[in-house]
Design a protein that fits this description.
Layout lengths: L12 H9 L1 H22 L8 H17 L5 H23 L5 H7 L1 H8 L7 E7 L3 E8 L1 H8 L7 H10 L6 E4 L11 E7 L5
Antiparallel strand pairs: 1-2, 2-4, 3-4
Helix pairs in contact: 1-2, 2-3, 4-8
């Protein structure tokens, strides 16, 4: 079981809480979130067939801790904002990686396999209309394991934290454009992933 403090994705969230609530209250929220995170692992790990815990449970724990200690505070706004900031950090890493000569071309050469695997039933997804051509890749994801687990936790909205990361970091690939206008976690019928090759995108 991972603690929130040891999570590469979520450990910087404490700073956001400090900024919003001050050090003492942030520590209390964080301590409660760590206990809730542990409880989620104990209760749901056996059902976590697709290994969603590391990405989802910390966000759910902090969300619940915020609602308990700061019931008037817009907890999801903070988590979506944090997701966007984390996505930006990941975007910069991806952009740096794809500065390596031939890396974008190699990724695109295998985009059919990448799209197929990333939206596969093996990883817990259902999809429709997967189409990959020489210059485009598209797929509509109808359900994802993160959102399904979030529904089991009784807080489907918390998956929006991860969707916010996804929406930003996926724009980091050089020469590959990315667009998503819908999200299952936000109440839409699918997540509409659209990628296309663009040799002029730096």
């Amino acid at each position: 079981m991972k603690t929130i403090s040891s999570s590469i994705i979520y450990k910087k969230l404490f700073r956001e809480l400090e900024t919003e609530f001050g050090c003492e209250e942030a520590r209390k929220i964080w301590a409660l979130a760590e206990r809730l995170n542990r409880h989620l692992y104990e209760k749901y790990s056996a059902e976590d067939e697709f290994d969603t815990a590391g990405m989802l449970f910390p966000a759910a724990a902090v969300y619940t801790a915020l609602k308990k200690r700061q019931p008037e505070y817009p907890a999801m706004e903070l988590l979506r904002s944090y997701g966007t900031k984390t996505g930006e950090r990941l975007r910069r890493l991806i952009h740096a990686f794809t500065m390596i000569p031939c890396a974008p071309a190699l990724i695109w050469k295998n985009i059919d396999k990448i799209t197929d695997h990333a939206s596969s039933e093996k990883l817990g997804y259902t999809r429709r209309d997967m189409v990959v051509t020489e210059n485009t890749s598209r797929v509509d994801v109808l359900s994802c394991p993160l959102h399904e687990m979030a529904k089991k936790l009784g807080m489907p909205e918390v998956c929006q934290t991860i969707c916010a990361m996804d929406k930003v970091y996926m724009t980091g690939f050089r020469h590959i454009q990315y667009k998503r206008t819908r999200s299952v976690a936000e109440g839409d019928d699918c997540c509409d992933y659209r990628l296309w090759w663009d040799k002029d995108k730096g």
